[in-house]
Amino acid sequence: MNRDVTALLRDRRANALLAWLVVALLLTVVAGSVVKGELLWAAFAAAVAALALLPPILLLNRHAMLPWEILLLAALPVIGRLFATLSVTGNLATYLSVAAIALIVAVELHVFTPVRMTPRFAVVFVAVTTMATAGVWAVVRWVADQTLGTTFLLDPALTEHAIEEAVMWEFVASTIAGVGAGIVFAYYVRRELGTTRVPEEVQPEL
Which among 38, 93, 142, 173 is positioned nearest to 46, based on CA atoms? Predict the structure, then answer.
């Protein structure tokens, strides 16, 4: 029975079906975030969904989806942030979500393009991409605070020093999450998972 289940999960069509279900879940999170007024997190979830939909749209093949477990791993922190009631839980979801986006980008490059990453380079690539994404996320929150009057980053109750320190700790946490995501991807590089579940006709030879 275990072998049958493993074979099913490695099947291209089954993988595509499960991946589409994860995308549907992400779109539900987008709607839920909009209803709760968390527009930035709605945009975050929408970005993850858009990255997941990029291969099937560009390659015009509904089966050209990322490994479903990678998408699920990327979706979990976004979903957790939606239902989080504690600030710590929400912040943890932020770091993991940033790393998840970097992980998706790396897997898409490895699976759907001629780019092939060694395990060591994969760890560095995902970690650096996570750090860059964390920087962009900080800028987005700062711009929102300046233009919309929100307090995502510029909290009036905190001193300038406290805000800067909090941002630096976010970068540290994001880097740690990025290294963890890189190790996960390195495991996929070593095992060559994902490519066996992608239709051969959508694997470009460039």
Answer: 38
